[in-house]
Specification:
The protein has about 475 residues and is α/β, with parallel strands linked by helices. It has helices at about 10-20, 35-40, 55-60, 75-85, 100-115, 125-135, 145-155, 175-205, 210-220, 225-235, 260-270, 275-290, 290-295, 310-345, 350-355, 365-375, 390-410, 415-430, 435-445, and strands at about 5, 25-30, 50, 65-70, 95, 120-125, 135-140, 160, 165. A seven-stranded mixed β-sheet has the order 3-2-1-4-5-6-7, with helices on both faces.
Amino acid sequence: MDIAMIGLGVMGRNLVLNMADHGFAVVGYDRDAPKLDAMRNEAQGRSVRVAQTSQELIALLEPPRAVMMLVPAGPPVDAVIRDLMPRLVPGDQIIDGGNSHFTDTDLRTKALAEKGIGFLGVGISGGERGARHGPSMMPGGDQAAYERVRKIFEACAAQVNGEPCVCYLGTGSAGHYVKMVHNGIEYGLMQIIAESYALMKQGLELSDDELHDVYDQWNQGELSSYLLEITAHIFHQVDEKTGGRLIDVILDQAKQKGTGMWTSQDAMALQTPVPTIDVAVSMRDLSGAKSERLAASKLPRGPARAFDRDRDVFLQQLQGALYAAMIVTYAQGMALLRSGSRAYGFGLNLEAVARIWRGGCIIRAALLDDIRAACKAQPNLANLLVDPRIGQAVFERQNALRSVVMAAAEFGIPAPGLAVSLAYFDGYHSEWLPANLIQAQRDCFGAHTYERIDEKGTFHTEWRED
């Protein structure tokens, strides 16, 4: 067999079928018997074998052996590796296709390299449908190990204009790092879309049908993206239990698995601001405080007057604001990839990252063609906001973003993602920021010193006599 898959849940099983449909022989294994049965049933007529044990799985592989796993991040990954190691020999390879934290991937890469085993950390985006019909795949690690499975990955990845949405990204944990930032961008985009929903639902009091029509129309233009596409569809989905729209019976608490938080944590460690992603993580946490929010909602609060904006004008402003905030969110993510590549030695090609995100993945959008072009034209571009075309697109929509943020504040509809995207735009373009006062405060209370604009070096002042 060409490749093995350990973990036959929804993602693993669908990726096995995808590989088999492209002419590769795949053997799968899972400790859960019902998942083995499901694999057998779905794989009928394909070149797929189901192993009863990990020993049988290894025995069925063509050397050098490639074993991929799609299991939950953390201890389950290490458990699979421990089980495999006595049966592998130098030259074999292990592929982690889950959402592992990049620091864990670095440790595993080093430990396995000492035993002659290649290791790939592969971010996979696209969900169940993507795994079955073509995901975006983000591999990093041992380049020789990637070459062993390159044809398999290129065949089963999403295709855009004849280009597979996969390529070798860099050494070590580059693949899992890129996937982490991908998920951070995903958090930010979902938050600002949700805020646009709140402004239309609470402000303009649009019905579910009207919301569907707005998002569907927006998805035909510059906002075209997978997330807008599914958002439009969501407002038409009927709840089988009540007969009403499903969206209206879903609890307003959003969970998370941690990748957004990891993005924020690493961005803070690298001192690269990603405030739209940060606030998206925070708002998911706030949504989880449902009982507290219910109690607080009964207390007197801010504005209570009716939303009095002209519907058509506000919808046009909201469309421009959402597009501007989307660009800012991608700009923050790409800036973090640049910082991470430099700090961790990944050697990332950001043009390649934008290329493989154009199809299959959750954050695919028409905008990524412009991002790819910007990164190709200026490989050392510090930030997307200074690219002439992309920067101009935000500049032209800044008034729309300002109007929407002001309306949200005026009428008490929380829109922190849109607001902080505007603040990032303004801050990034500011020749002067009030950080000189912060320097002075730090030196005044803690003797942390400060720098001057007219002389090199660090200085300290005795600010007051106690």
